[in-house]
Amino acid sequence: MKRREFIGAVAGATAATAMTACGQKESESQATEKSASKPFETVHWKMVTTWPKNFPGLGTGANRVAELINELSGGRIEVKVFGAGELVGAFEVFDAVSRGNAQLGHAGAYYWKGKIPSAVFFSSVPFGLTPDEMNGWLYSGGGMALWEEAYKPFGLIPNPVGNSGTQMGGWFNKEINSLADIKGLKMRIPGLGGEVLKRAGGVPVTLPGGELFPSMQSGALDATEWVGPYNDLAFGFHKVAKYYYTPGWHEPGTTMECMINEKAFNALPADLQSIVRNAMKVANLEMLAEYTAKNQQALQTLVEKHQVQLRHFPDIVLKKLKDLSEEVVEEEAAKDPLATKVWASQRAFKTQVSQWTNLSELAFLKARNL
Questions:
Q1: Which of 62, 184, 260, 329 is the most exposed place for a label (fewest CB within 10 A)?
Q2: At 78, is the secondary structure helix, strand, or coil?
Q3: % the chain with pLDDT above 70
Q4: Is the pLDDT assigned to residue 223 strictly greater than 60?
Q5: How confident is the model at residue 188 (pLDDT cuts 50, 70, 90)?
Q6: Are 264 and 188 in contact (CB under 8 A)?
Q7: Measured between alpha carbons, how far is 197 from 180 in angstroms, rounded to an integer?
Q8: How far is CA 1 from CA 4, 7, 13, in A?
Q9: DSSP characters for 89-116?
Q10: In a 3-state reduction of DSSP, which class is residue 55?
């Protein structure tokens, strides 16, 4: 081939390659622009809750879960929150999510004791785990796997979404000086705590939060526990009860839950599934931080402004309640094979972790209070 013909052939091939590459880039660019300009389909979910709409801590905690999912998904999932009674009743949340009438349910697992005997162990056990210990068991001690096993038959995926911290012992219109003062006492107290109260001679009543104030006001209840100062001040219990007792022996570290309808969750792409689960982990952290920050502020208002009389349960009462709690918990766990397995796991974790809690946090708190 002559030199001039060779150079021409090379130039032609180079130009063809460049045109092909240019065409590919234009095609890729057009595809990217087309993809970017194509609007994504928004997934619309409903969240039903057992809490009054926008109630501090609990109701706003449900709102926060929805906000996080909306934000982290870039608007690909929009969650609308319904307070207790707006879409379903407070104690109808479990069934609503199980049936797919709502995709999310924000609640406390101990409300479902009648459906799932092991459910109470995923909220709080009398004289049981602290908030940090509860998170330790769920995330790193095998608790989550057991919780998922318990809810699986109902088409639900459970998630911890907050903790109220160690709660208060409740509101009373008479002083509690001995176990005899509990006899015949009509008190709102759910879960295993209610069973212990019953064993002590009291009358446990399960009511949603919105019904507690009028029940105390009318005398239908003699006493009530709810959460702690932050929530109790908002409900105005200081207007209908005289004495405020500590500690919350029945709920030392109550975990809140957000259950997901399994079919709705499985319909999401993997990235959105991850966003939903991790949004709930963020909410779990934020709620405990909020209660830690707000409780003492509210307690100060209750005592100094509203002259609430703060009382401590006598040691003799607490010791008897602890003995009764051990009996009740063992009996409840024995009623169901899964409950037996769940309690065995939590009990073993408590035995192990409490040694470290006593050596570290308890020892430090004693030193700090010298």
A1: 184
A2: strand
A3: 89
A4: yes
A5: very high
A6: no
A7: 12
A8: 8, 10, 16
A9: -GGGHHHHHHTTSSSEEEE-GGGGTTT-
A10: coil
pLDDT tier for residue 177 given thresholds of 50, 70 and 90: very high
Q: Which of 180, 192, 183 is nearest to 222 (CA)?
A: 183
The whole-number average pLDDT for the span 12-19 is 42
* pLDDT at site 40: 73
CA dihedral 236, 299, 316, 121 (to 10 degrees): 80
What is the distance between the alpha carbons of residues 213 and 215, in angstroms, rounded to a whole number? 5
Residues 107 and 160: their CA atoms lie apart, in Å, by: 10
Residues in Cβ contact with 356 at an 8 Å cutoff, skipping those fewer than 6 apart? none
Q: Give the CA radius of gyration of the chain.
A: 28
Bridge-partner residues for 186, per DSSP? 203
- Unique residue bearing structure tokens 């929805």: 66
Where does the pLDDT of residue 39 fall: very low under 50, low under 70, confident under 90, or very high at 90 and above? low
Helix spans in the chain (H) = 3-37, 59-72, 93-98, 131-140, 143-151, 191-199, 212-218, 229-235, 262-266, 270-300, 315-333, 337-357, 363-368
Q: State the Cα–Cα distance between residues 352 and 108, nearest whole angstrom.
A: 26
Please answer whether residues 260 and 104 qualify as being in contact, where contact means their C-beta atoms are separated by less than 8 angstroms.
Answer: yes
Does residue 78 contact residue 42 with C-beta atoms inside 8 Å?
Answer: yes
Average predicted confidence (pLDDT) for the chain: 91
For residue 214, cis peptide bond before it (omega within 30 degrees of 0): no
Residue 68 makes CB contacts below 8 A (sequence gap 6+) with 279, 280, 282, 283
Q: Please tell me the distance from the alpha carbon of residue 258 to that of residue 163, in angstroms, as a whole number.
A: 12
How far is the C-alpha of 142 from the C-alpha of 149, rounded, in Å? 11
What b/e string do you get for 92-104 counting C-beta neighbours within 10 Å, with b at 16 or more? bbbbbbbeeebbb
In contact, 271 and 340? CB cutoff 8 Å: no
Helix (H) or strand (E) holding 186: strand 186-188
Per the CB < 8 A criterion, the answer to whether 280 and 161 are in contact is yes
Report how far residue 62's alpha carbon sits from residue 267's, in angstroms, rounded to the nearest whole number.
22
Does pTM surpass 0.85? yes
